[in-house]
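Q: I'm teaching a short session on how sequence maps to structure, and I want students to see two examples side by side rather than one. Could you give me a first protein with its sequence written out and its structure tokens following it? Keep the formatting plain so it prints cleanly on a handout.
A: Of course. Example one:
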Amino acid sequence: MIDATENTDETNDVRGARERRDIVSGEVMPDSRLMRFVADPDGNVVPDAASKLPGRGLWVAATRAAVTTAVEKKLFARAAKAQVTATPDLADRAEKALVTRMLGDLGIARRSGSLLLGFDNVLRGLQSAKPPKALIEAFDGAADGKRKLYAAAHRLELNCAVIESLTSAELGLALGRENVIHAAVQPGGLAERLTFDAERLSGFRLRTERDS
């Protein structure tokens, strides 16, 4: 039987992705669609974006609506089988935790030399022998430049993830520049992790179709 905890709810699909049970819907789904929460020593429910904090994992679909439902219906206490407290701002804190994690990874990518920054550099990267694995476009950036890069990636038949979960200001904060619209990350663990977290973050951003 699969339940909400990390010790007894894990299965694997052919790609090796872990699956968990959402405490709101009861649906078993890949952890790329879920957010882990734990209770801290004081019994307060906190988001665990990296899925590494100690304690019993409480898994919720990575959407603002699902986390809000879990709070309002006191489903965290039911799943934890303990008196735990989940505050109304939990969805906001989950979103912030994911953003912080992604910005940290972008900073690492910049320092390691695996980041391409700016339209021209990204376009040259797409046309290179080792194209980037993740194409990052500011959530609030102009559509024209995005379309040109998407068209180039499509024309070159590149299997690269497109990330549009972060704003220009957030990208600038991570990369130490203003008005960052276009970036890309070379293949590797950072690109995979950014893609994983972007999928989850999209469920907390108000303008996504998932929460419309």
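Q: Perfect. Now a second example for contrast.
A: Example two:
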Amino acid sequence: MVSSRAKKVTTQTLLKMKQTGEKIAMLTSYDYSLARLVDGAGVDVILVGDSASNVMAGNETTLPITLDQMIYHTQCVVNGVDRALVVVDMPFGSYQGDSKTALDSAIRIMKESGGHAVKLEGGSEVAGSVERIVNAGIPVMGHLGLTPQSIYKFGTYTVRAKEETEADRLMKDAKALEQAGCFSVVFEKIPSELAKQASESLIIPTIGIGAGADCDGQVLVLHDMLGITKDFSPRFLRRYADVGQAVEGAVKHFIEDVRSGNFPDESESY
């Protein structure tokens, strides 16, 4: 476990990690108990992802989750964190309208949740909103490549930016986000060589998910890498444990003990 006295991770910490070649480890969390474990293990960044819409609420996409729900999940996570930088996804509909809407949403997240930074999807089209949020003193992480909030526009979760035109656009978008003030950018499901080129061209750190090993850091959804979710197995996902199977086994054992009268025994009674 990381000591509560451990130095807190900031946006400047991540920049220094990129400069020294130290890889950044980022995972999602959505509640106090798991956030406490993830933070205690020493992860650098905790993303309160809009993937909560999928793994916590059971929705097919990330679109249904609301700003109020994201704030609630972040409040829970922040209560369990001593060291990690807590980044909060801005949900669909909370920033796409105009830069004032985006700023108002970001301010609500920061004031009500206790999070340390926000993340939003998109490139040049959101650069104005990024700049306005950053100018208000709120750190912003970008997100390019496969952007799940635009799934109905793309119509598929396949790898993005395989063609030269889209790859060029991604490079320009990454630069636009950097110039607008983003402290980092996530690349999701893009060719590894493109992610390498973009990472080398940017001053700010890049975080990959399905973008190869040359990004400055990597992120996974916690429930995926722990084997809690069973019906999602993309190539980029490495399962580090089978917690789902362990939970199911423990529950079955509990049921057996209750029905047999084995639980509670005398030592577990008053």
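Q: What should students look for in example two?
A: Point them to this: The beta strands are 24-28, 45-48, 85-89, 117-119, 140-145, 184-188, 206-209, 217-220. Also worth mentioning: Residues 13 and 108 are 25 Å apart (CA to CA).
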